[in-house]
Structure formats: C-alpha cells, structure tokens
Amino acid sequence: MKEFVPVLKRTKLFSGVGDDDISTMLSCLEARLLTYKKGEYVLRQGEHLSDILVLAEGRLHIQRDDYWGNRSILGHIGVGEIFGEAYVAPESGTLLNDVISVEDSSVFFFDVKRVISTCSSACRFHTMVVQNLFFAISEKNRGLVQKLDYMSRRTTREKLLSYLSEEAKKQNSASITLPFNRQQLADYLSVDRSAMSNELCKMRDEGLLEFEKNRFRLF
Amino acid sequence: MKEFVPVLKRTKLFSGVGDDDISTMLSCLEARLLTYKKGEYVLRQGEHLSDILVLAEGRLHIQRDDYWGNRSILGHIGVGEIFGEAYVAPESGTLLNDVISVEDSSVFFFDVKRVISTCSSACRFHTMVVQNLFFAISEKNRGLVQKLDYMSRRTTREKLLSYLSEEAKKQNSASITLPFNRQQLADYLSVDRSAMSNELCKMRDEGLLEFEKNRFRLF
DNA sequence: ACGAGTCGGTTGTATTTACAACAGAAAGGA
DNA sequence: TCCTTTCTGTTGTAAATACAACCGACTCGT
C-alpha cells in the first residue's frame, strides 16, 4: 500500500499533505486497497456507498447500461482521480452508474466517516482533506456542466467539436489522445457510432482534423 | 437581513445550526443581501466568483446563450438553494453559465474564504458548514448526473418521460408542477419546442399523461 | 498460419428532429 | 375595453439521426 504514497501525494484529496502524514493517514483512515482485472466492476448501479475512492493504477469508466443494453458512458477516471464522493452523503441514494475497469486497476477505499470526522490523534489534516474534498467535487461538478454543454448540442458534429476542442484545451495541445475507442466515444457523446464515424471522416475530408485510432489532431 | 434567518435555517448550508448562531454567522461571514428584478442577471458567464450564494426569495434559472442566440437551460434554483459553490475553488476558472432571475429575487452572498477558514471567535460552526457545503455540492453533482441521464436519451419522448418521471419521484406525486414553460422546458431538455409540444400532445392522446400549463399528471 | 473476435468505415433506409411559419388562446398594460 | 405580447399547438419540409447490415484491417491466441 505504501508503494502508492507518491501517487496519493499528487491527488487532489491529499494535496498539501506530506509523505509521512499520508502514511499515517492511511492507517488512521483504515484505507483498503483492492485490485480489479480488466472488465471487472468496481461499483455497481444501485449499490450503497460509504467510501471515497481513489484510483491508484489503471483506468476506469463510469457508465450505465439500460434495460435494452444501450450503454451510456458518463466519464473516465485516470490515475489519482477521486470518485464516489458524490454518493457518500447521508441522504444520497444508491449509485446511479456502474464503475468498471478498462485496464487492470487498483483502487483505494477510504471510509467517509473517518475522512470527515476529525479524530483526536495525530491526524491534524482532516480539516484540510475535507476542504480538498470540497474542491475536488467542485471540479467534478464543473466537468459535468461541461459535459452537459457537449450533450446540449443538437448535431453529432457540434458534439464532437465541442468535446474535442475542450479536450484540446485541457490537454493544452492540438494533438490529443482520447481515453475512448469509437464505440466508447459514441456512448460518451450519446450518438450513433456509425453516424459519428461518418461525421468524423467528413470533418477530416474538410480539413478540420486528422485522426488515427484514438489520437486526434485539430486544425 | 435577519428576516431571512428562518429561510437560511432550512437550507442545506446551515443545516444543524440554530437561529442565534445563524444571526451571529451572518455578521461573522459578512453576508451581503442583494435584490434582483425579474429578468436581471445575478451572475454572468465568464465572471470570476468568490462567493457562495443562497437564494432567499424568488426563482432563478442557470442558463447559457451561445453566439447564435440558442439558449440552453442547465437548471432551476428555488428558495433556500445554494449556488455558485462549484466556482469558488482556487483553480476553478470563470463561470460557464449565466444565472438570471425569473422572478424578483433576493440573494445572499457569502465570501468563500470566510466560510471555509475557521475563525477564532464564537463561530464554532465553520467545520459543520464546510461539511454541509460538501453534502450540498454532492447533491448538485447527483442532480447533474441525473440530468445527463435525461440528455443521453435519443428521442424527445424518452427525454420527456425520464425527466417527468424523475420529477414525479422528487415531488413524490404523479401530479407535478414544473418550474418551466414550454420554451424553457425545451431549452432544458435541449430539444425543439414545437417538436416537443407535438410529442407531448401525442403522449396525452395515448393516455400517458395529462397537462395544463406547467402542471402535469402522469399515468 | 489459421480462425475468432474486435474495431473502424461505408452505405441505404426508415425514423426522428429542426426549422419556419402560422393561428388561436391567454395574459398584461394602457 | 382594446391592443399588444406571450404562450402553446399545428403543419409541412428539409436535414440529421438511428439502425442494420456489411466489409476490410487488425489483434490475439493457438
């Protein structure tokens, strides 16, 4: 578990907390580290959650399959990212989405009660961690608003352009790598894969962008 | 300002805090109360924000107009609701949406620095308020995920049904009142108003629902 | 090298949507 | 009351989308 302290140090949750203090907190918070093979579920829609999770290694998707098998991908979780925070509030219901590993992954579980309630011992960082938690969920929130912005576009092209240009801004480059293949990108933007593929090729022919696999370059 | 203490007491932000303590905090936090006429902007897209806001009276819409005048309504704010919390984090950029009053409204402004940093004096509630803030933003988060669920539906009918049935669940009744007129509902669900109106009438003819103005009844 | 499975692109068709234009009802102000 | 404005429903057409089916390229394991 200690091996991941450098990873944890760079997370939003432990921002501003030193290595030693993180080690201390790992035991103080009774952190657990679970591993998942590619394709395994980390969380399932409808479950109750009382832990805040941090991805130590691997990649995850937050998604949801409806009754007819239509998949909708809400988002992607990379190393160091927090997730599950939105469902640990007392009156929050059950999870609305599945979380599934798209690569072999390791996940930290922190019991929210221990994270939030200040304890008497050496852990003087609870207050800071709660603040960090607030800022982290703020960021998630803004990300969701951003996604709603993509989704509010009427055409597949507009959805693609708003998503890709935002991603270029985030990755600070006109050449970007997406965490999705075509089907996943279509599920993320809630459009038909073949129609999207078609549109992408049209846009390429018009000189708006280039792509190869999941690497895109905007012009 | 004191007149709104009963309102504040019932907000998520001050949940668990007594009347007297709220009064104390109002001055400790240097709260400001501003009023807006119907149609006025409370916040504008692109602005920086360093306050957490609470609606004391009236109704607000969170929305966004693009360059071509297409309006997208992100959500609705009722009395006692918190807003702006997602944009007060240090690295959060500028606001992505406008907030506009749809009725004459009064809004509390709380400087986030004062809310978050524990002060030495009588205000022993900062810790609790930060926790409340976390829970409140959690709820916002789940609401956004819910909205993404509506928006991920492919057809106008599916969007309407998922929104209306979720609203019925929230209002705990098959008879619900929406905070939107037709155009606003269309802007909220990102569909064409006339197509939506058409679809609503078809659904009514099929016996799925009834409506009159912004009151709906599901069967 | 082979076959199974995955992935991305292409095409055609039926469905759905957006857009524009119009009309009647309701609301609000002078 | 009259006039204006707003709101809602209706219709027709053009555009965009979903869906299904198919193909070739590629990957992977045997």
What is shown here, in short?
2 copies of one chain form a homodimer. By secondary structure, chain A is of the alpha+beta class.
Throw out a few tags for this protein.
homodimer; 219 residues; alpha+beta; 4-stranded antiparallel β-sheet; 7 helices; 11 strands; 38% helix; elongated; DNA-binding
Structure in words:
2 copies of one chain form a homodimer. The first copy, chain A, is α+β, with helices and mostly antiparallel strands. Chain A is built from 7 helices and 11 strands. Chain A has helices at 5-9, 19-28, 112-116, 126-151, 156-171, 182-189, 193-205, and strands spanning 32-36, 41-43, 51-57, 60-65, 71-77, 82-83, 98-101, 105-111, 175-177, 209-212, 215-218. In chain A, strands 1-8-3-6 form a 4-stranded antiparallel sheet. A 4-stranded antiparallel sheet of chain A has the order 2-7-4-5. The first copy, chain A, has a 3-stranded antiparallel sheet with strand order 9-11-10. In chain A, strand 4 and strand 5 (71-77) form a beta hairpin. The longest helix of chain A is centred in the middle third of the chain and has 26 residues, at 126-151. Chain A is elongated, with a radius of gyration of 19 Å. At the A-B interface, helix 4 of A face helix 4 of B. Chain A binds a DNA duplex (30 and 30 nucleotides) through residues 154-156, 181-183, 191-195, 197-198, 200-201, 213.
